[in-house]
Amino acid sequence: MDKATTAELIDFILESLRLIKRRLNGIQSSDNFLENDEGLDKLDAISMRLQSIGEALKNLDKREKELLLNVADKEYWSKIIRTREILTHHYIDIDAETIYMICNEKLAELEQKILKLQEYVK
Fold it and tell me: What does the alpha-carbon distance between residue 102 and residue 117 come to, in Å, rounded to a whole number?
């Protein structure tokens, strides 16, 4: 991802958010992730996309810190990047409830901020 352009990283994040929404279809609670193999597959796929979003934002932060600050403060972006670190290095500690909460409570706001970033890049 390091060699991707800023616009490509933003597009990647938006596509990842779209895929997470699609994969959440049929998931009504964190328990649904744990009911069967299909739920576990969704949990794993969503977790990987969340990790990838964090990596893309980490790259954007390195490359264009001021761009991110046009949309939200450093603390906002740092939390997302730290989530990527947890998903990457402490995956065994991640639980379905945390992933479900992130998807239901945080992704809509993130999508709006990424769309604003996209406007700055155009």
Answer: 20
Helix (H, G, I), strand (E, B) or coil at 4: coil
Reference 41, options 84, 93, 104, 99; nearest CA is 99
How many other CB atoms are there within 10 angstroms of residue 118's CB atom?
16
Q: How far is CA 17 from CA 69, 86, 95, in A?
A: 20, 19, 20
Mean pLDDT, range 82-96, rounded to an integer? 76
Residue that the structure tokens 């490509």 belong to: 8
Q: Are 10 and 121 in contact (CB under 8 A)?
A: yes
- Are 68 and 13 in contact, with CB atoms under 8 Å apart? no
Summarize the confidence of residues 62-86 as an average pLDDT: 90
